[in-house]
Amino acid sequence: MKYTIAIIPGDGIGPEVTTQAKKALDAVAEVYDHIFLYKEAQMGACAIDKTGDPLPQETIEICKNADAILCGAIGELKYDNDPTLKIRPEQGLLRLRQELELFCNVRPVKAYPKLLKNSPLKKEIISGTDIVIYRELTSGIYFGKKEISEDGLKASDVCSYTVDEISRITHLAFKAAQDRKKKVTLIDKANVLATSRLWRKTVAKIGEQYPDVALDFMFIDNAAMQIVLNPKRFDVILTENLFGDVISDVACVIGGSIGILASSSVGEKNALFEPIHGSYPQAAGKDIANPLASILSAALMLEHLGLHDEADAIQRAVEKSLDLGITTQDLKGKNQYAASTAKVGDFIADYIANQEDSNMNFKNIHMGQSTII
Ligand SMILES: NC(=O)c1ccc[n+]([C@@H]2O[C@H](COP(=O)([O-])OP(=O)(O)OC[C@H]3O[C@@H](n4cnc5c(N)ncnc54)[C@H](O)[C@@H]3O)[C@@H](O)[C@H]2O)c1
Ligand SMILES: CC(C)[C@H](C(=O)O)[C@@H](O)C(=O)O
Ligand SMILES: [Mg+2]
């Protein structure tokens, strides 16, 4: 089959990690006889530099017409360090999410047995953790009216939600729970916020349509603590935009590194796949960033396209790289050799291309310019 994939490399480490994801996709295409037609599009700081706009119209068109979108990351230090700049890279990503109505952001968080030692949390606490976060992505405080007074002494961001916006992601979260451990936890701040109370009321009502799924509620401040104290109590987490952004980065410590966590952002017509992490500008061009979040985002993309065997092939290759310790420095201890970004990508592509060949000799896999830390 032929698929058109919009690729948005973005800024910082974005281009390096998406290059590795493309290597994995190329290997999948070869083994399973598909054609992936990549259409590269600009977004973020690189797009501002080229066109003055973080989301040029051409990018929107390429994304709308693609079967799926694979995004690296956007953002650059000069914007992070200057709050007065009005045009910002992040506006590109936010507008794209809104323009394509990618309302349902799914962020799976797992404790891989091989990576238990990489988490600062105790092994017995995180072992067996398997959570999926359903984060509402196109409303809430991110998209409410923003104002700053003329004298610059007062600013406000409005948070609003409608029942429809809450309902559409809630149904998806309950349906996901039905195929998992049958539990949904709504994370909110209903003791303070009117929007959270609307979430509780709406989600409780919808929950009645899913009697096989248990529903509980937790305030965000407590949830930030429970997710590190007792992550196994969670199955599907459902939450609004800002809380979902924060709780998913907290949950990353369970996985051992933010560099391995992938996400999908799905709407009625389009779907975008990207790492949870940002553009990690300090690592840009150094060939040290972990490409697994991008590679696993490509696997989520294949799942979405109905290519389950192909997605499994990527997943198996990633697990093999972890088993063999062919990983970047974020997953290594002090004084251990780490593979470069490109070498991890090469290994994964090679493994996909050759995994049915039991004679593949992993000892021959060349680690190339390893980094010692
Ligand atoms: N979806 C996105 O494109 C996205 C997401 C988050 C942040 N951002 C942007 O990224 C820029 C940097 O933000 P930040 O520093 O808060 O977050 P970040 O995720 O880029 O980096 C935070 C830390 O996480 C680790 N990290 C991140 N990605 C990694 C990888 N692939 N391999 C190994 N370690 C990794 C590093 O230790 C890094 O210091 C900002 O401009 C921000 O707006 C973009
Ligand atoms: C870059 C930023 C706008 C984005 C968000 O806040 O949604 C990021 O942190 C994420 O988690 O995808
Ligand atoms: Mg974030």
TrEMBL record:
<keyword id="KW-0100">Branched-chain amino acid biosynthesis</keyword>
<keyword id="KW-0460">Magnesium</keyword>
<protein>
    <recommendedName>
        <fullName>3-isopropylmalate dehydrogenase</fullName>
        <ecNumber>1.1.1.85</ecNumber>
    </recommendedName>
</protein>
<keyword id="KW-0028">Amino-acid biosynthesis</keyword>
<dbReference type="GO" id="GO:0009098">
    <property type="term" value="P:L-leucine biosynthetic process"/>
</dbReference>
<keyword id="KW-0464">Manganese</keyword>
<dbReference type="InterPro" id="IPR024084">
    <property type="entry name" value="IsoPropMal-DH-like_dom"/>
</dbReference>
<dbReference type="GO" id="GO:0005829">
    <property type="term" value="C:cytosol"/>
</dbReference>
<comment type="subunit">
    <text>Homodimer.</text>
</comment>
<dbReference type="GO" id="GO:0051287">
    <property type="term" value="F:NAD binding"/>
</dbReference>
<feature type="domain" description="Isopropylmalate dehydrogenase-like">
    <location>
        <begin position="4"/>
        <end position="348"/>
    </location>
</feature>
<comment type="pathway">
    <text>Amino-acid biosynthesis; L-leucine biosynthesis; L-leucine from 3-methyl-2-oxobutanoate: step 3/4.</text>
</comment>
<dbReference type="GO" id="GO:0003862">
    <property type="term" value="F:3-isopropylmalate dehydrogenase activity"/>
</dbReference>
<keyword id="KW-0520">NAD</keyword>
<dbReference type="Pfam" id="PF00180">
    <property type="entry name" value="Iso_dh"/>
</dbReference>
<comment type="function">
    <text>Catalyzes the oxidation of 3-carboxy-2-hydroxy-4-methylpentanoate (3-isopropylmalate) to 3-carboxy-4-methyl-2-oxopentanoate. The product decarboxylates to 4-methyl-2 oxopentanoate.</text>
</comment>
<comment type="similarity">
    <text>Belongs to the isocitrate and isopropylmalate dehydrogenases family. LeuB type 1 subfamily.</text>
</comment>
<dbReference type="InterPro" id="IPR004429">
    <property type="entry name" value="Isopropylmalate_DH"/>
</dbReference>
<keyword id="KW-0479">Metal-binding</keyword>
<dbReference type="GO" id="GO:0000287">
    <property type="term" value="F:magnesium ion binding"/>
</dbReference>
<keyword id="KW-0560">Oxidoreductase</keyword>
<keyword id="KW-0432">Leucine biosynthesis</keyword>
<dbReference type="InterPro" id="IPR019818">
    <property type="entry name" value="IsoCit/isopropylmalate_DH_CS"/>
</dbReference>
